[in-house]
Design brief:
By secondary structure, the chain is mainly alpha-helical. It has a single domain, classed as Orthogonal Bundle (ABC transporter involved in vitamin B12 uptake, BtuC), CATH 1.10.3470.10. The protein contains 13 helices and no strands. Helix 2 (30-51) packs parallel to helix 4. The longest helix is centred in the C-terminal third of the chain and has 30 residues, at 250-279.
């Protein structure tokens, strides 16, 4: 039953990440998403201190996601505008500072809460049905947003100037993607932690992009690849524990498999191109 819950939560996280990951990569917001995956720890900690309720209750997580998105966007844009820093330098400075501050807040004000290494690397062994419900809710939320605003998200991902000319509110959809990214990072909080969630957001999309280049198909294959990696990673983790006596992090195995899938897809693509050139020489 525990393995089934792990598969369900990791698969739901993979689907939620796969629905917004393509837009983040196409809009060149990957580093921003990486920053969010770290600053979300501070957002959750501050929301917990403000609300005073259960740590993983839905209101706490919603406020935590909103705080993380607002802080990350505000400080990143502030450093760019006020101190003329490059955006990548600003993002690197913000996420390291806010992540360190989040760890400090957790250490000093949340000593009675079990939020140590699990918050950083995740721990699939502690997942419960409540985590599956949360991850499934995030899948539904991301799916609804993508279906309703697919046209607008597609336009701003490929040509922001055209989107402005057509009257699309680019700043609104930019922040919407930030908020969905923060919520998705929170959904992946206990499963894969704040460090490995980027593998779910980016890895499956890069693998899918090798074989297809149309956005609707990318939005289909990206979650599928993430689900395959999640199920396979859970099975590999159980096999290593049962037969090799190796207790490895399931989330780490899944992230490794995502990387291996990309390497395999790249090799297959290169081999196919070489074979076609030999068969049909110019």
């Amino acid at each position: 039953m525990n393995d089934l819950i792990q598969m369900g939560v990791l698969s739901a996280v993979a689907i939620a990440c796969g629905l917004i990951g393509p837009f983040l990569v196409l809009k060149k917001m990957v580093m921003f998403a990486n920053s969010l995956s770290h600053t979300v720890l501070l957002g959750i900690a501050l929301a917990f201190l403000l609300m005073g309720g259960p740590l993983f209750s839905l209101p706490t997580l919603l406020i935590g996601a909103l705080l993380a998105a607002l802080m990350t966007a505000f400080f990143t844009e502030g450093l760019v505008r006020l101190f003329r820093l490059q955006e990548d330098a600003s993002i690197g400075l913000v996420f390291t500072a806010l992540f360190a501050l989040g760890i400090t807040v957790v250490t000093f004000f949340m000593r009675d809460v079990h939020l140590g290494l699990d918050a950083v690397m995740g721990n699939a062994d502690i997942l419960q049905l409540s985590d599956l419900k949360l991850a499934s809710t995030l899948v539904g939320l991301n799916l609804i947003v993508v279906i309703v605003f697919f046209r607008q998200l597609q336009i701003i991902s490929f040509d922001q100037n055209l989107a402005k000319a057509l009257g699309v509110r680019c700043s609104f959809f930019h922040f919407l993607l930030l908020f969905l990214s923060a919520m998705t990072c929170i959904g992946a909080f206990r499963a894969v932690g704040v460090l490995l969630v980027l593998a779910f957001l980016v890895g499956p999309f890069l693998t899918a992009r090798i074989f297809c280049n149309r956005l609707p198909w990318l939005l289909f294959w990206t979650p599928v690849i993430g689900v395959i990696a999640s199920v396979s990673g859970t099975l590999v983790s159980r096999f290593l524990f049962e037969y090799c006596n190796l207790a490895l992090l399931t989330s780490g195995i899944v992230a490794t498999l995502i990387g291996l899938f990309y390497c395999l897809a790249k090799w297959v693509s290169s081999a196919t191109i070489v074979s076609c050139k030999k068969e049909f020489p110019s």
